[in-house]
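Table S2 (text version). Query chain:
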Amino acid sequence: MTLSPFKIAVPQRDLDDLAARLANTRWPDEIDGVGWGLGTPLGYLQDLVEYWRLRYDWRTHEERLNGFPGFMTNIDGADVHFLHARSPEPAATPLVLTHGWPGSLVEFLDVIGPLSDPRAYGGEPEDAFHVVVPSLPGFGFSGPTREAGWGADRIAGAWPVLMSRLGYERFGLHGGDWGAIVSREVGVRCPERVIGTHLTMLPSAVPRSEADLDGLTGAELARGEAALARARDFRTGELGYAMIQSTKPQTLAYGLTDSPAGQLGWLVEKFKSSSDSRDAPEDAIDRDDLLTNAMLYWLTGTANSSSRIYAAQGGAWAAEPPTSTVSSKPTVATGVAVFPKDTALPLRHLAERTENIVHWSIQDRGGHFPGLEVPDLLIEDLRTFFRPLRNPRVL
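Corresponding C-alpha cell output:
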C-alpha cells in the first residue's frame, strides 16, 4: 500500500558509459538509395547518435521529468513508477494517461500541465484533471519486471489498485497503442469506477476486408478504403517488430541492451513509420523528446521487459492484433480520436459493434503519438469528451 516519492537521479557513471558506447558504435553496412525502406537509415542514425553523444543534455530532461511529482509503489509484485499532478481545482476529474510501445510517459509531458491546471494555460477551470501518468510495468522505471505474464490484462488489473491508493474512487482513462488496450480493459473489468474511456487506437474497429466496408457511401466509403489499405500495409510491411517481440524477445534483447545505437535505431524507426512525418521522425516529434524516450529504455535496461508485453499477449500477431481479453461489450462511455497518420485507422460503424461510442472525432493532423506530435489537439479532444461525463467522487 506504500506510495513512496521517487526522484530520478541517474548516476554520472551511467551517462559516461553511454557516451563511451556511442563513441565506439560498430556500424553496419547499407545499400545505397533504400532510405527508410529496409529500416532506420545509416546516415540518419549516425547523425542522431552524434547529436545524442555531443549535444543532448540528459540532466535538462531529467529535471523536466522531476518537475512533476513522481512516486513508486508495488502492485502484484511489480514496481510501478508514476507521475501524479494534482490539480489546484478541487472539482477536477481524476484521469489516467497510459502510453504504449515504443513510447513512455514522455508522450504526455506536454499535456500534463494544461490538463491539470487549465486556468494557468488560458483554459477553463471546469476542464481540470488530476493527472496520473504511470509507466507500464516493464517499461522505464517500472522495470524490469521479474516474472512473465505482464500483459495488458494484468496491467488493467493494476490500474484500479493504483487509483485506490491515490484516493480516487472514480476516474477517466486515456490511452494509445498498448495504453488503449489497457484502458479499454479497465473499463470492461471495472465499469462502476470508470467515468469514460478515451482512445486513439481501437484494433477491433480496423477493417480487415472489403466486407467491413459494406453499406458505406461517399466520404465514409473513401475513408474506409483508405483505412483498409493502411491496415493491409501495416500487416505486410510494419508488423515484423511485434512478431519478434511476441515470440523471441530474449534474443532481441542482447543487442538492444548492449548497444544504445541499436536501441535507438529499433525505437526511432517506429516513430518515423507511425507519425505524421515526412523525411524523418523530427518532422513530427522534437528530437530531444525522441532521445529522452530512448533514455528511459536505455538507462533502466528495459528493452527486454518492455518487449515482453507482446509475448504476454500471445504470438498470433500476423493474424490479428489483440483487442480485449474480455469478450463482453463494455458499458463505459467511450470516445475515439482518429489521427490521420496513425498506423491503423478505426471506422465508427465497426467500433459501435464492440464499444459504447459517445464521441468520435476525426483530426486533420497527427499520427500514433498525438501527445508528442499534436498535444493541442489531444488536450482539446480530451476536454470535449469528458465535459458531459464529469461526476468525480473521491474516497
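Notes on Table S2: The radius of gyration is 20 Å. Residues 83 and 133 are 5 Å apart (CA to CA).
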